[in-house]
Design goal:
alpha/beta; 6 strands; 11% strand
Length: 244
C-alpha cells in the first residue's frame, strides 16, 4: 500500500474533550445561579460563550483563555446586578475553570487499535492539535500517544491554515498523499482544504460553537465524512486503490 502522511487532531477526534468542558461549564453556571438568582442558566452560558469566542483571536486556544472567560463572565454579572465582588467567589470560579485541565482524558473507542493498524500498514502518523503545550502534552503523555507519533507532534495555540501550511512545508509532504483527520470544520477540515490535502471529517456528538463554519471550498483531493474513527483505515485504503 502506498505510504500516506496522516495528521490527526487530538481533542474530540482521538480522545474526549468537549464533554469535560460541558461538565465544568455546568458546574460554573450552577454556582452563578446561586449567586445571581435573577439570571437564568441560559443567560450565563450564552455570555460565557460570547466572551470565550471573542478572546480566541487574541489569545488563541490557551488554557488561560477559558479560565479568564469564566472570571470575565462573573465580573460582567457583578456589574450588571450591582453585587459586590467577593474573593471567595472569585476563587471558586478560578478553581472550577482550572479543574477541566486536571481531568483524566478518555480515548475514543478503538483509538489504539486504529493508530496501530495505520502504523503497521506503513503510513506515517502525525499529531496536529490546538491548545497550549503543557495541557496538550499532559494528555498526549497520559494517552501514551508517543508510541504512534514519536516526535511528529505539533501543538498550535492558533490552529489555522497558516499553522498547517507551516507544518506541510517544514515536512515537505507530498500533498497528494497527505491527510488531515479531525472533528473541527474550522481548524481541521477548512484548513486542510485550503492547504490542498485530503480531509476526513468525523463530527463530534457535541460540538463547540467555535468549530462550526460553512465549508464552500472545492476539494483538491478526498473529502470524507465518517461516523467514527474506526472507519478511517478503510476510507484511506479505498481511496488509494481507486487512484492505483
Amino acid at each position: 500500500m502506498q505510504k500516506q502522511y496522516i495528521l490527526f487532531n487530538l481533542d474530540d477526534t482521538l480522545a474526549h474533550c468537549n464533554k469535560y468542558f460541558h461538565l465544568v461549564i455546568n458546574q460554573f453556571t450552577q454556582r452563578m445561579c446561586e449567586w445571581f438568582s435573577t439570571k437564568t442558566k441560559q443567560e450565563i452560558e450564552q455570555k460565557q460563550l460570547e466572551i470565550d469566542l471573542a478572546s480566541i483571536a487574541q489569545h488563541g486556544l490557551t488554557s488561560e483563555r477559558f479560565v479568564e472567560s469564566l472570571v470575565d463572565t462573573y465580573n460582567y454579572f457583578l456589574e450588571q446586578t450591582g453585587r459586590t465582588k467577593e474573593d471567595r467567589e472569585l476563587k471558586i470560579v478560578k478553581e472550577i475553570g482550572k479543574s477541566v485541565f486536571e481531568m483524566k482524558v478518555e480515548p475514543y473507542p478503538q483509538m489504539n487499535e486504529i493508530l496501530q493498524q495505520l502504523k503497521e500498514e506503513g503510513h506515517e502518523l502525525y499529531l496536529h492539535t490546538g491548545g497550549d503545550k503543557n495541557n496538550q502534552m499532559r494528555k498526549i503523555t497520559q494517552l501514551e500517544l508517543g508510541v504512534y507519533f514519536e516526535n511528529r507532534i505539533f501543538i498550535s495555540s492558533h490552529k489555522d491554515t497558516g499553522a498547517l501550511e507551516e507544518i506541510l512545508q517544514k515536512m515537505n509532504f507530498d500533498r497528494s498523499r497527505t491527510w488531515m483527520v479531525g472533528n473541527s470544520l474550522r481548524t481541521d477540515i477548512l484548513t486542510g482544504l485550503e492547504c490542498g490535502i485530503h480531509v476526513i471529517y468525523i463530527p463530534a456528538k457535541t460540538e463547540w460553537k467555535y468549530n462550526e463554519v460553512k465549508i464552500d471550498i472545492k476539494p483538491q483531493g478526498a473529502f470524507y465524512t465518517l461516523d467514527s474513527l474506526d472507519q478511517v483505515p478503510k476510507a484511506i485504503h479505498e481511496y488509494i486503490c481507486q487512484q492505483a
